[in-house]
Amino acid sequence: MCINKTEIKIMNRHYIKVRAHLFFLGMAGLISISGCASFGKGIAEAVLEKSNEQDTRVCQVKGKAFDGIEPGLSNSASKTKVLMVHGVGDRLPGYATEFFEKLGGELKVTAKQSAYRDIKLSSPLAPEKDMGNLRITRLQNEDGSKELLFYELTWSEITRREKALLDFDNSGEYSFRRAEVNDMMKKFSNDTGPDPIIYLGESRKFILMAFSQAFCWMGLGGWEDLPKSGKHTCTSDKSYEKSMNDNFVFISHSLGSRITIDGLQRLVSMLDEPEVHSNGVYKIKAIDRVKSFLHDRHIQIFMLSNQLPMLQLGRELPKVTDQHASYCEATGDKYDLKAVKETSIIAFSDPNDLLSYAIPYGFVDTYLDSRLCVNVTNVNINVAKVIDAFGFGKVANPLEAHVGYTKDDRVVALIAKGIGNHHTSPIVKDGCQWTEIAD
Asked: Which of 194, 334, 354, 373 is the most buried (most CB within 10 A)?
């Protein structure tokens, strides 16, 4: 069969269009290394989207079994408190609403929802500085026997003023000169790219103060003990007796995972050396009270699009490392000096997310504070579908792979009910493979 010149030209044009689509997909992937935010259903997703296909996405869990939120929620003698820490990109209070409602549905605490509390954060170490916002929502089941307090930390206010330096580049004076798609990606980059850079500078200490304030408010009793609105400072000289048995869970995304770990390591250092880190603000009795509050506590941290290995580059090591046995084993000579009983990190990463990483063997001992007694479970999961892109090879949308964790039913089920236990969700049992890693 012969192909005429006209047909050859049509085929060439079609080939060029396909190559152009793939080029823009690659550009979207490159831009995504600046941080995390979603274009919605942009060009890359339009190329990749296929419907009505069998879900063959990978879900591999390697590490210790973990309980998730469910067991604590079922214990009437304690409250369950979840703190969400966002990653790069400008956020407004309420950004996590879709996620916590999805999480509440998995945990069956959707029958009642109280009007949220909004606290404008302030730290005693810098009372004049605005530290962002903490929004707390209470979710309950129908008879009130189960209660989840969801704390949503918004720290964008701290970096917003510095990022305003780039506003000129988003103005019509410059943006009209760009092609539409390039202009959209440039604005995305201007919003997300600066945050990791800013975090390395002066603003880092204020972001960590915001985290400490959020942690402090989690420790002060329950819903009735929270102010309804306004600017407030939480101090460690207040009583923690109401929260001694409460369950603390952290959920973070991208840079938020670094903030969470840095915030906990800063807290540990402050407890051991209050005169160095707190400028005398915190009294010794208050420090002892916080130590007692934390000492026998098991903390779970769910890190979405985990970036700890990349964000460790160029950073100083914690003061106490490579002493896990001494601090965390009952026979260790420093066991009584540990900060918490155990910290379980569950690190989620999509292999097609250009910004996420598993936590490799040996990372904890070398780069994390031994006093936190960290153990790691890695979750290798495709939150973005991998498809055949017109015969050019397998491909997945890198943006969806970076921001799609909170919408994935398996991720939500793992956070809610864990794996390797009797209450594991059916979607996890059927869709995830678990390999237990022995010590």
From this structure: 373
Q: Which of 181-185, 218-222, 273-277 has the lowest mean pLDDT?
A: 273-277
**Contact, 327 vs 319, CB < 8 A?**
no
Name the phi and psi angles at 28, rounded to 5. Answer: -60, -40
pLDDT digits (tens, 9 = 90+) for 5-56: 444 444 444 444 444 444 444 444 444 444 444 444 454 555 445 444 566 7
> What is the C-alpha separation between 185 and 34, in angstroms, rounded?
11
Give yes or no for a contact between 356 and 349, defined as CB atoms under 8 angstroms apart: yes
Poorest-pLDDT segment among 42-56, 105-119, 140-154, 207-221: 42-56
* Residues with Cβ within 8 Å of residue 140, at least 6 apart in sequence: 109, 111, 112, 113, 114, 146, 147, 148
Instruction: Give the DSSP H/E element, type plus range, for residue 303.
Output: strand 298-304
Phi, psi of 304 (to 5 degrees): -90, 135
Integer angstrom CA distances of residue 266 from 15, 270, 322: 55, 6, 18
Rounded alpha-carbon distances, angstroms, from residue 414 to 35, 60, 378: 24, 12, 12
What gap in Å lies between CA 222 and CA 243, rounded to an integer? 8
Q: At CB < 8 A and 24+ separation, what contacts does 21-30 make? A: 21/47, 22/47, 22/389, 22/392, 22/395, 24/181, 25/389, 25/395, 25/397, 25/398, 27/185, 28/185, 28/397, 28/398, 28/399, 29/354, 29/398, 29/399
Within 10 angstroms of residue 285's Cβ, the number of other Cβ atoms is 9
DSSP string, 309-320: HHHTTTPPPPSS
Query: 105 and 273 in contact (C-beta within 8 Å)?
Result: no
The CA distance from 163 to 311, in Å, is: 20
Residue pLDDT, tens place only, 373-411: 999 999 999 999 888 766 677 888 888 888 899 999 999
